[in-house]
Amino acid sequence: MMAHDDELEAQVDRWRGYVLRRQVISSADVDELEDHLRGQVADLRATGLDDDEAFLVAIKRLGNVDAVSREYAREHSDRLWKQLALVPDSTLGASGAPAPRWRELAVVIALAVGAGVAVRAGIAWFDDEGALARNVGLLVAPFLAAYLGWKRQVGVRTVAAIAVPFVVLAVALNVYPFVPEGSTEVLAIIHAPVILWLLVGLAYVAESWRSDGRRMDFVRFTGELAIYYTLLALGGGVLLGLTAGVLQLVGIDPEPVITEWVMPFAVPGALVVAAWLVEAKQDVVENIAPVLTRIFTPLTIVMLVAVLGALIASGGLVEVDRNLLILMDAILVLVLALLLYSISARDPLAPPALADWLQLVMVVAALAVDVVMLTAMLTRIAEFGTSPNKIAALGLNLLLLVHLVVSAWRSARFLRGHGTFSELERWQTRYLPVYAAWAAVVVIVFPPLFDFA
Amino acid sequence: MRIDKDLVAASATPLVLGILADGDLYGYAILKRVGELSGGRMQWTDGMLYPLLHRLERLGHVSSSWGTSESGRRRKHYTITSTGRAALAERQAQWTVVADALRQVWETAPRPATVVEAWA
């Protein structure tokens, strides 16, 4: 009897390994299927079949693994991209197959160099710093969007949907007679990248821009791009620092070459390369993402509570420094990025866990900070009147308030078992374009409204 | 008798929700219950039940929790939610209409002879 059980265990193990190779069936799903298989085997044995027969019949009833995993793939399309990334190009067949690896690499290198050339030309072309700062995003974004669009072979309509707003943005940023170093110019410089990022997102989601799942993929892409970019920047920094050190020791001053030639090519080029890495190696980072969010969520809570305490302890909110408010806005945007990234990294079917409670605590803490800031801003506006900076900050904080309130409400519902996690997910993906719309208002409407001051 | 694939697919959701409305169950027990209810005549590809359950969970119709089986292994139990009950009531109303219409058709039209010969 014991020997028979061993045999069965070995068979079940082999089967598990076989099924787990399908990337769309997670190990929790295989546990569930295994429970089913064992139940079936036990019942069949009770009817008089021996181990082998029972196992064979049970496997057969479970169905063809290919067909079943297709069904899983349909339901869990978020897992499908793992499989896609791992499919070797050769198996896709010759006709209509995606470009071979070397061709993709060539496109990536060409676009990275192109972005570098554009930025270098921009530095040479724009004589004042304000004009360069307004245009640098416009110089880089097309290359990133071009890579993503090329990869997805987007249609003419998508290209138009990206190109038209891009041209409008470019015209506004360059035709408006900004007062040098006025606040509307600074606001436009800060907000333009948000719009550009939406356009890059359009290239990423392409025709399925309505799909919540694809939008979430873009959020994931953004987070992973940030990680890869940081890694590339760190590596590049070390290399550059070492090279510069050696050159200095032998009596060559490397600085002009580094600031004028290396950085203008390396910084935008690394962005395109990072995008390529995210697209090619998705499954590697995916394992890091949940770990990172789990480490940073509690730390962010501590930071928010400390900040809140400091704000309250400092007393009079009217005297709160303007720079402090700007810094706090940056903190809130960071919290939001962390929230989005951790939501995108989470398995939507997993039951509520400690991490979700921590996330709710973080959102509530951010809400408290946001309310304090809104109060401070409104008092400032009542005291000193409006200014473009104050209205822009107020608008952003109101957007954040709505975002955080609904997020808190949805995740509380989910934690109490009244709602699903995908509702929380959907809220994020549907709300995101609002930020770009607001950024567009700040860039396009604010300057004429405030006389380009 | 082999029941048409599309018919099985269409009836799967109300069947699973209806079974869960009677009490929490795990996957294999749900399938056994389907077998009992149909006198063993409704055969599913067992593996297809789980993607269906996961979809119902994503839609919020059922919720799941991991427990342990008698033998101490991990086992996932499914519970119907209030939205699930509402969806079930809705499906029930739809099926009643369909079944009603079919019954009237069966009454007026004679049963096709070939089917009777083949399966009686």
TrEMBL record, chain B:
Domain Transcription regulator PadR N-terminal intervals: 16-90
SUPFAM superfamilies: Winged helix' DNA-binding domain
Top-rank lineage group of the source organism: Bacteria
Name of this protein: PadR family transcriptional regulator
